[in-house]
């Protein structure tokens, strides 16, 4: 039972709605049967026919779950039509109608309770499932045709021609009721699953589009220049072999083109590493929802922030989203952005953090100064450096029973006076550059302040957070981080 409860909590919202809708259809015939048993057995109904109705109603309730489940799956495009199960259910339904007719003939209209609830439950099982397997036109024709045949047979046997219109009206009601309950529920589920698939496809397309954009920019910047460098280098080698002084001129031109390429690559990388707050929030909601995490975002104050503050807080959202996916078994995550007394305050809190040996969360990201048990990481340290350039702060804390909160504060007065994007590193020779702002990570190459060939320590997507060897770099066509965190869902649940 505990595993089932935790399995239910681990499902996504759409999966929960799907299960709730199906189980409503499964349980409804049982509830109707329970309502009708006292009516059938009361008032002298304790007879073989009365017990036959109860047995047939129970058999229909037992057939309903596998029949309805397969009918729902067929409607959603996940399996074949369960015609064999429908045939068994139809036999039990017609038998139920026959027993009711026999009791009508035996006891008359005045004394016999019509077992209405049992009949409705049986019709919901059979007619509801049948409505998922065919179109409404054939469904209506089959229902009314069967009702006319049954009503005519009862009229011939009993001699009461009033049975025909009565059975036709009852059949029309049961058919309409079954369609409104079952087919409408299946239609809602189909729309929700299509929307969920569309959101996943949108996230994948965003990642693919960003890769294409970065690849196109790098090709446009470096393709021609590298071709010219190769040709001029080959020419310089030949001229040098002949002892021609023109080889020096060619190599000077190669040096100039290489320096120009460095500047162009720096511009591309800086543009790629820029972050937009609204884009990051939308990406965080999409990737967390794909991982089965309920994400609530309140960013009403986002439009009031200067560009520098928005960019810095966007990096906080990207890194925090990665930490939620990598270090917590979260079920919910809340993001709130407020402006209080000239300070932008971003609070991101999630649950699902288990305590470690030191009493801190076992997946607590490293780089949190002042917290025991923190060690050596650079993901949040890089965020702290970004915020420090704007006079801001970053605080992380664990809140009982199993929550983790990240709070970023940025003074708007200072952020509004900075023209440079805090996502771009300051030049190392700048006297105002904070410690670590212009540092080149191990293995990277400095191109006038930009970093090429390695993922920056403070890049989004959590690359700096204990990145494994062989992880994706800027030269892979992905740049300094995962766009909007969209690829991070793979690290948790394999869904984008």
Structural class of the helix and strand makeup?
alpha+beta
Classify the helix fraction into a percent range.
55-70%
Number of folding domains?
3
> CATH superfamily of the largest domain, called what?
Histidine kinase-like ATPase, C-terminal domain
Element order, helices and strands? HHHHHHHHHEHEEHEEHEE
Instruction: Output mean pLDDT.
Output: 73
Q: Find the CATH topology of the largest domain.
A: Heat Shock Protein 90
| H/I helix tally | 12
Strand order of the largest sheet: 1-2-3-5-4
Q: What does the radius of gyration come to?
A: 34 Å
- Per DSSP E runs of 2 or more residues, the count of β-strands stands at 7
- Main sheet characteristics: 5 strands, mixed
Principal-axis shape equals elongated
CATH class of the largest domain: Alpha Beta
Spans where pLDDT lies below 50 across 5 or more residues: 357-377, 419-496
End-to-end span in angstroms? 30 Å
CATH architecture designation of the largest domain:
2-Layer Sandwich
Proportion of beta-strand residues: 5-15%
Short description:
The protein has 496 residues and is of the alpha+beta class. It has 12 helices and 7 strands.
């Amino acid at each position: 039972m505990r595993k089932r409860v935790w399995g239910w909590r681990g499902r996504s919202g759409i999966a929960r709605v799907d299960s709730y809708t199906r189980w409503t259809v499964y349980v409804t015939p049982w509830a109707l049967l329970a309502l009708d048993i006292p009516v059938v057995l009361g008032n002298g109904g304790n007879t073989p026919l009365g017990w036959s109705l109860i047995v047939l109603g129970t058999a229909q309730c037992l057939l309903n779950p596998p029949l309805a489940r397969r009918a729902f799956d067929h409607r959603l495009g996940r399996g074949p039509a369960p015609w064999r199960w429908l045939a068994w259910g139809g036999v039990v339904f017609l038998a139920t109608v026959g027993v009711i007719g026999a009791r009508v003939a035996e006891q008359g209209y005045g004394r016999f309770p019509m077992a209405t609830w049992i009949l409705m439950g049986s019709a919901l099982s059979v007619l509801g499932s049948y409505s998922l397997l065919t179109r409404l036109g054939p469904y209506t024709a089959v229902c009314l045709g069967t009702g006319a045949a049954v009503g005519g047979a009862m009229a011939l046997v009993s001699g009461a021609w009033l049975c025909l219109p009565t059975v036709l009206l009852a059949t029309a009601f049961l058919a309409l009721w079954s369609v409104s309950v079952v087919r409408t529920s299946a239609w809602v589920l189909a729309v929700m699953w299509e929307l969920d698939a569309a959101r996943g496809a949108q996230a994948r397309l965003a990642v693919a589009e960003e890769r294409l954009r970065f690849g196109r920019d790098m090709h446009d910047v470096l393709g021609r220049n590298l071709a010219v460098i190769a040709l001029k280098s080959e020419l310089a080698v030949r001229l040098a072999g002949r002892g021609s002084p023109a080889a020096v001129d060619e190599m000077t031109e190669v040096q100039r083109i290489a320096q120009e390429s460095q500047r162009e690559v720096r511009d591309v990388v800086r543009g790629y590493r820029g972050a937009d707050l609204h884009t990051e929030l939308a990406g965080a909601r999409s990737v967390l929802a794909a991982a089965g995490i309920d994400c609530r975002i309140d960013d009403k104050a986002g439009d009031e922030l200067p560009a520098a503050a928005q960019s810095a807080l966007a990096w906080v959202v990207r890194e925090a989203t990665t930490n939620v996916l990598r270090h917590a078994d979260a079920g919910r995550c809340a993001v709130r952005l407020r402006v209080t007394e000239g300070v932008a305050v971003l609070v991101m809190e999630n649950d699902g953090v288990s305590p470690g040996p030191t009493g801190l969360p076992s997946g607590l990201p490293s780089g949190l100064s002042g917290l025991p048990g923190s060690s050596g990481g650079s993901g949040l340290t890089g965020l702290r450096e970004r915020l420090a350039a704007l006079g801001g702060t970053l605080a992380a804390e664990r809140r009982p029973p199993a929550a983790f909160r990240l709070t970023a504060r940025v003074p708007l007065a200072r952020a509004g006076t900075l023209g440079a994007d805090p996502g771009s590193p300051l030049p190392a020779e700048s006297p105002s550059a904070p410690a670590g702002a212009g540092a080149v990570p191990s293995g990277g190459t400095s191109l006038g302040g930009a970093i090429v060939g390695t993922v920056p320590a403070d890049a989004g997507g959590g690359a700096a957070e204990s990145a494994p060897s062989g992880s994706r770099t800027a030269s892979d066509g992905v740049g300094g981080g995962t766009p909007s965190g969209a690829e991070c869902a793979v690290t948790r649940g394999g869904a984008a």
